[in-house]
Amino acid sequence: MTARIYRPARNAMSSGTAKTRHWVLEFVASEARGVDPLMGWTSSRDTQAQVRMTFPTQEAALEYAEAHGIQAVVQDRNSRKPNIRPGGYGENFATNRRGTWTH
Q1: 85-94: string of b/e by CB count within 10 Å (b at 16+)?
Q2: β-bridge pairing 52-55 and 23-27
Q3: Whose C-alpha in 14, 18, 54, 64 is 20 to 30 A from the C-alpha of 70?
Q4: How far is residue 54's CA from residue 5's CA, in Å, rounded to a whole number?
Q5: 42-43 vs 34-35, strand pairing mode
Q6: Which long-range contacts (CB under 8 A, 24 or more apart) does 70-74 make?
Q7: What is the pLDDT of residue 57?
């Protein structure tokens, strides 16, 4: 059994960082998914691929993997600095703008 431990990326639909502070242990699929000929659904007999566990720290996830004999690979992500504008959202509606309002 092989698993990967990673921190999930933020949702592309928002600029928030919710659900990105925890670590996830997810099993790698041992067999490829197949297509059901009648309905067209994808399916697999590998039930471990459905398991996804969250941990508060990377060390906790590694300890769990070692305690249960799971080979784990840690994937680090590239951290991005937050995009904070000096004026913030209120800058869009400032009355002392130097330039013309174009939108």
Answers
A1: eeeeeeeeee
A2: antiparallel
A3: 18
A4: 9
A5: antiparallel
A6: 70/1, 70/2, 70/3, 70/25, 71/1, 71/2, 71/3, 72/2, 72/3, 72/4, 72/5, 72/25, 73/2, 73/3, 73/4, 73/5, 74/4, 74/5, 74/6
A7: 95
pLDDT digits (tens, 9 = 90+) for 13-56: 777 777 788 999 999 888 888 898 899 898 888 888 888 999 99
Backbone angles phi, psi at 61, to 5 degrees: -65, -40
CB 80 within 8 A of CB 59: no
Task: Tally Cβ neighbours within 10 Å of residue 61.
Answer: 23
Q: What CA–CA distance (Å, rounded) separates 41 from 11? A: 26
- Residue 6 in this model has a pLDDT that exceeds 90: yes
How many residues are there in the chain?
103
H helices of the chain, where? 58-67
Best CA proximity match to 6, nearest among 86, 97, 78: 78
